[in-house]
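This part of the workshop introduces the protein records we will be handling. Getting from the letters to the tokens is the skill we practise here. An example says more than a description, so a record of this kind follows:
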Amino acid sequence: MAKVKLTKNALKAQRDALKRFSRYLPTLQLKKQQLTLETRRVRDDVARLEEEQAEFARQLDVWIGLLDESTAQLAEGATAVEAWETTQRNIAGVETPVFGGVRLTRPRPDLFATPLLLDDVLDAVRRETELRLRHQLLQEQLDALEAELRTTAQRVNLFEKVKIPEAKEHIRRIQIYLGDERTNAVGRAKIAKGKVRALEEAM
């Protein structure tokens, strides 16, 4: 525990600090609660999206083997991310990225020279890319929220377990010391008064 001066000014400073800590703590606790709820929600979103990705992969497995190598190469080379749109969302004071959409370059192949499956393949590539980018952004959201939650939880603990008890203990010690000083001062005043009276009587 830090050393504190045992004076009236120090007592006022400690009372002000305690008032400030006590006023700030509920705000921190509310922020921690919001962050906990949002972190849980985003974790659930990540889990749902991972299930969706797994289901999509299972669906692809059914017909992906029907592709010949040239169609697969054509689809792979023909689609690229042209634009990836994101927005920012403020969650309990944390700016997090939110998926807005993705635009892929879509070729206009010769309808007579390409297999019928190409359209399905291009749609599948687009869907897989969108799912992957959504997952990436949700993971970034989760990382940002978890980092802020850790920091906020540390602050709550600091206030609850260190700062507030420390200020209360300092106030208690200063009050005891100042009370003892007042008692001693009264005692000294009585002794001095007695001595003055005794001198007056002796004259």
The chain has three helices and two strands. The chain has one domain: 8-188.
